[in-house]
Each structure stands twice: as structure tokens, then as C-alpha cells.
């Protein structure tokens, strides 16, 4: 999710985090981020917290794909 959208959405993960809860942010420019997101999604499914067709998983995998596409554009000098 785009930073400004995440911060402005009261239903977002960041907005729902408790004040004393630790969080971890992956930046779109980090080439390792898509792999980490996919590993997170796989683990959520493995431990039964989500199913493969859950919207949360679909959104996460979409973000991973978008990050990879942006990284490829940067590498080609398009951005």
C-alpha cells in the first residue's frame, strides 16, 4: 500500500496497530521486500491464519508483484 494511503486509512494495518505494538515496514525500493511478503503470506496460510483466497493474502501478493514491477522499471531507468 502507498504510505499516504496506509496512514490515512483508519482500517489499515498501521492504523489498527496498538500504540505499544511493534511494527516492521518494508520499503518498495527494497529488492528483498517482495520475497519477504510472499514468505509472510505462505506462513499465514501454513499456520491457518489465512486461506489462499483471503483478501489480505491477495492484497499482499499484489503489493509484492507491484514492488517487483517498480524495481524492474528502476533498473531499466524508466523511473
Uncertain segments: none
Total DSSP helices: 4
From the N-terminal CA to the C-terminal CA, the straight-line distance is 19 Å
Order of helices and strands: HHHH
Supply Rg: 14 Å
If you average the pLDDT, what whole number results? Answer: 93
Task: Describe the protein.
The protein is an all-alpha fold. The protein has one domain (about 5-75). Helices cover about 55% and strands about 0% of the residues. It has four helices and no strands. It starts with a helix and ends with a helix. The model has no long low-confidence stretch (mean pLDDT about 95).
Quick tags:
79 residues, mainly alpha, 4 helices, single chain
Topology of helices and strands:
Layout: H1 3-8, H2 13-16, H3 33-46, H4 55-75
Describe what is shown at a glance:
The chain has 79 residues and is mostly helical. 57% of the residues lie in helices and 0% in strands.
Amino acid at each position: 500500500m502507498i504510505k499516504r494511503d496506509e496512514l490515512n486509512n483508519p482500517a489499515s494495518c498501521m492504523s489498527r496497530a496498538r500504540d505499544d505494538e511493534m511494527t516492521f515496514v518494508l520499503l518498495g525500493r527494497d529488492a528483498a521486500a517482495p520475497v519477504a511478503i510472499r514468505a509472510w503470506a505462505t506462513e499465514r496460510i501454513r499456520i491457518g491464519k489465512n486461506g489462499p483466497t483471503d483478501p489480505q493474502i491477495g492484497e499482499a501478493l499484489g503489493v509484492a508483484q507491484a514492488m517487483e514491477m517498480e524495481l524492474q522499471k528502476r533498473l531499466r531507468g524508466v523511473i
